[in-house]
Amino acid sequence: MLMQDALNGQLNAELYSSYLYLSMHAYFKSVNLDGFANWMYYQAQEELTHTMKFYDFINQRGGKVKLLPVEAPPNEWGSPLTVFAATLEHEQKVTVLINELVELALAEHDHATNIFLQWFVSEQVEEEESVGGVLEQLKLMGEAKGGLFMIDRELAKRSPGGESAEAE
Ligand code: FEO
């Protein structure tokens, strides 16, 4: 079934997102930017909740979950700026995937799946906004070390289920 395969594919993409952000968390820990690491830790956790939403929905609809191999993320990152540029690029790709799922649901007149996906449509707007906000600050800061530590302190405020104070 086309929709079931597509939902299983998205489950995999969300799990990859978690893996990707975990690799970014490990990078930030390795360079002692604990606030950035904190933000990525909760970002990785949030992607696991997205994964489980797809997992639960497939089961709830009487479908069959199919777990696919999860691709390895890059394990080397050059700077906080390149990490957040890659994060925004990744979230923009996820937005395209979600939009394609919505289009498939509409084409198949699958109203239940369409309603389920609407939460993700809104979520992607928030994701791109919060990631884009951090990226803009990193760009403005340039080479100034003081700015990096200021952003690090802000990102340290993110808690489970929440964004940093700035992104609220
Ligand atoms: Fe699950 Fe960040 O999209």
Notes on the structure:
The chain has 168 residues and is mainly α. 75% of the residues lie in helices and 0% in strands. It has helices at 2-30, 34-60, 80-107, 111-141, 145-155. Helix 1 (2-30) packs antiparallel against helix 3 and helix 4 (111-141) runs antiparallel to helix 5. The longest helix is centred in the last third of the chain and has 31 residues, at 111-141. Bound molecules: MU-OXO-diiron.
Straight-line distance between termini: 40 Å
Spans of at least 5 consecutive residues with low confidence: 164-168
Fraction of residues in helices?
over 70%
Q: Note the beta-strand portion.
A: under 5%
The biggest beta sheet reads: none
Number of extended strands: 0
Number of domain modules: 1
CATH class: Mainly Alpha
Name the CATH superfamily assignment. Answer: Ferritin, core subunit, four-helix bundle
Q: Any ligands, ions or cofactors bound here, and which? A: MU-OXO-diiron
Q: Compute the CA-based radius of gyration.
A: 17 Å
- What is the CATH architecture term? Up-down Bundle
Question: Overall pLDDT, averaged?
Answer: 94
Structural class from helices and strands?
Answer: mainly alpha
CATH topology: Ferritin
Brief digest:
The chain has helices at residues 2-30, 34-60, 80-107, 111-141, 145-155. The chain is mainly α and 168 residues long.
